[in-house]
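Exam prep: given the inputs below (a chain plus iron/sulfur cluster), describe the expected output before reading on.
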Amino acid sequence: AFPHLFAPLRIRGAEIRNRIMSTGHDTVLPVDGHVNEALIAYHRARARGGVGLIVTQVAGVHETARYTSHLLMATEDGCIAGYRRLAEAIHAEGAVVFSQLFHPGREIMESADGLLAVAYAPSSVPNERFHVMPRALPVAMIEEIVAGYAAAARRMRAAGLDGVEVVASHGYLPAQFLNPRVNLRQDGYGGDAARRLRFMREVLQAIRAETDEDFVIGLRISAGERDDEGLTEHEARAACIALEADLDYVSVTTGTSATLGGAMHIAPPMAYQPGYVAPEAASFRQALRVPVFVTGRINQPQEAEAILAAGQADLCGMTRALIADPEMPAKAARGAVDDIRACIGCNQACIGHFHKGLPVSCIQHPETGRELAYGSLAPAPRRKRVMVVGAGPAGMKAAVTAARRGHDVTLWEAAAQPGGQALLAQMLPRRAEFGGIVTNLMREVERAQVRLRRGVRVTEEVLRDEAPDAVILATGAVPHVPDLPGDGGVEVVTAWQVLRGEARPGGRVVVADWRCDWIGPGLAEMLARAGSSVVLAVNGLHAGEVLPLYVRDNIAAELHRLGVEVRPYARLFGTAGDSVFLQHTPSGEAMEVEGVATLVLCLGHRPVDDLAEVAAGLGIEVHMAGDCLAPRTAEEAVFEGLKAGAAV
Ligand code: SF4
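Solution:
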């Protein structure tokens, strides 16, 4: 069904079985700079699921490369043993493995000891995103770093990896050397284009000298960093053409770590079109003879097949697709595309975890990053009759997990349609894909042969009649509506009423956002698009403060474009006449918004948990998951569903 996707690709000594790649991405699974069992289990799961090429996360090539505290390091021979176990595990499942070799230059985020590491770059040009002022690299240190790349490659070869990829993408050190706006040197490493290329050329040639003819050497580069100060598409392509003789492939991405606008493209949110970098990759492919890889929200095998068939690239990076469903390639190969748990581009638990310093996972597949604990669940010692009450994400995941362990499971839903709050989330602008979580989980419910009873509210009577051995409550929550002072001059509605079409705010609207997650900013955007003049009152620092950074920044850009007035530190106080009163939380001062027609409340949720005591009183084993336990994000709810299904 996918002739281009499943055609093998040979590069030097590496025979890649298909055109699907897991690109280098920081998993935060290593804890002390070394490959560990958690990382091996993570990649083994994807290799077993059929991926062709795994490029492992960045490995630091020099002490000054420690841009985060959980970076893998390749600066000592002591790293070889771990990489060898990793390579053996990946090879045993039929995939090829390269390692990214990395130096961030001025892109320094944090350091293990609590002090921001000293950053080095070609020149002392500041990084605005991390507020870093780097030191200009002395020539002796440049030579050390070049030697560090070569030594790291030698170690990867010794460990049995098939190749390495020099990370020149996203504004990291090699890109800093290439960029005339960041590299202001006037010595042998800066000035004209040839001298700006010298660092990269020396790195690539030193790697070849330290490895052998079979060993693959690739380059990852942004086809334009999407920032005024960033490397342009023309500059990046010209560099690849000039370096081609020393390269075996070019892996094309986009964006830069250096600015908020450019960083979004490191893991583009769902607002971006699938495969949107492919036209840029195609221009590289036309200019080069070596294979060109591409990435950028390629979520589904159909999209990858189309890119390959159109000749835009030779291999597709599908990293988040593999984070969401490690078995995606195998399912595609056997034509079971409807069984693929498609990534929805929410960024919640993959890159979102990275920014929180947590191990990689997936909102839809919490087993990701937890392969050692949940990779293969033991069958239940005794088959029980299990009732799962509530078919939101938590309930669906609990039901699937319990059924896969051998229980006899019925999933009960009061509404006509399963999905819970995910059905509301998908109504927000540019969030339609969020509904994919319901489609995907429902498919799993069917495959796990869970019986679904919809349109039935479970009461004490139902529990008595059914008399299950165990009940998993995933009964959700309802909007929190506080007792606000007001005289009725301003219409007060909840976010849910607006999303369900039960309220239609117009004119001037205040959206009061308590949790600073997706609901308040999403509603503000939706109402502004519909023509309202919107004030978004945020009881926190930023709109969408708790969202993954790239999602938050994408929303901030959209709210700005639409003229939404965001008021930070704003606690809702009440209404009088046509005014909404807010309190500026740090100062305690009152703020009045006049001429308001409607106040929309996004003030969190109250758990619906009354069945817990009832079920316990009937002697039924009780488990709880999701919003009925405490207000939960969708990610927390699905993980809790997994835990409940594993515990029953
Ligand atoms: Fe995709 Fe969201 Fe899962 Fe990340 S957390 S892999 S974006 S579905």
